[in-house]
Design brief:
alpha/beta, globular, Rossmann fold, 41% helix, 11 helices, 3-stranded mixed β-sheet, single chain
Length: 301
């Protein structure tokens, strides 16, 4: 949704595909994000990557860039995540998809990757895949790279670290703020991990800028970095920014981390030029606080 918003703000005409009808998104937050994305674009509901309707859309839509972002993420944190099945899902009928794009005049493809893929970013322990999900994303990028090179299409890879901000899934920063609004202290259980957390609004602006510069041949990559620091330091940062904006006590308790099942350090390496992008950190923190102050249910936001 944030990528669609940034592209629309930059003057692009965006067509979005959704595997489900809007009413099929029964989780309120997901439905709200789908609704907002649809309002900012030309939506095509009930269309999945690689199916006949998707191919027809590419042949007739005259798109400059194909930007597949959807991926198999079901139980993505599980060690039993099926990386091979996810790869098949993410690259379904890919040669036919790219042929249809070329038939419609398109010459550029932009995929999204993850800093948790093996070999991405900077960090410790030789940059291994974090999980089977990370492996599936790395394999997906390899397959796209092969077929785009064979088809003489330009391929861009946009590597995502940990986005946070309004409309976030109930993950770390959302959990922090929910605790504070409920009058509770929030505990950070993994304060020693060094990760890369980035405002989603900044991430989206970098994405839109990357689209503008994407060449029609060859491979290019951008790995935008936000706050590359320990999770403990980041939790304290969020508390400092949110307390005056929310008007409530934002207390953080840092647990003693004894287990390290994941690599200790993984961050992105490209520092965005916020001024050139017309982006303000203070405004982003304001927007995040306003989002949480105005309601805790997706229907009210």
């Amino acid at each position: 949704m944030w990528f669609v918003r940034a592209l629309a703000d930059a003057g692009h005409e965006v067509t979005t595909t959704f595997r489900l009808p809007l009413e099929g998104y029964d989780e309120p937050l997901r439905r709200r994000r789908a609704q907002l994305a649809a309002e900012l674009s030309t939506p095509c509901f009930g269309v999945a990557f690689g199916d006949d309707a998707f191919l027809d859309l590419l042949r007739t839509g005259h798109f400059d860039v194909l930007a597949p972002h959807g991926a198999d993420v079901t139980n993505y944190k599980s060690p039993d995540f099926d990386a091979v099945a996810a790869l098949a899902h993410n690259t379904r009928r890919l040669p036919a998809v790219l042929e249809a794009l070329r038939d419609g005049g398109g010459r550029r493809v932009l995929i999204t990757g993850s800093v948790f893929e093996g070999g991405e970013g900077a960090g410790s322990q030789g940059l291994p895949d974090f999980s089977p999900y990370g492996l599936s994303k790395a394999l997906t990028a390899r397959v796209f790279g092969y077929y785009c090179e064979r088809g003489r299409l330009g391929l861009g890879k946009f590597v995502i670290p940990n986005p946070f901000g309004p409309y976030e899934e109930p993950r770390f920063t959302a959990w922090l703020v929910r605790n504070w609004l409920d009058g509770k202290a929030a505990t950070c259980n993994t304060p020693a991990y060094v990760r890369d957390n980035i405002h989603v609004s900044l991430l989206a602006r970098v994405y839109a800028k990357f689209v503008d510069a994407l060449p029609e041949l060859g491979f290019s990559r951008v790995s935008p970095s936000g706050y590359a620091e320990s999770q403990g330091a980041f939790a304290l940062r969020v508390a400092r920014e949110m307390e005056p904006r929310l008007g409530v006590a934002c207390s953080v308790q840092l647990a003693e981390q004894r287990e390290f099942p994941e690599p200790a350090v993984r961050v992105n390496t490209d520092i965005p030029d916020a001024r050139a992008l017309g982006w303000s950190a203070a405004a982003a923190w304001d927007e995040m606080a306003r989002y949480y102050r105005e309601g805790t249910s997706a229907e009210g936001l």
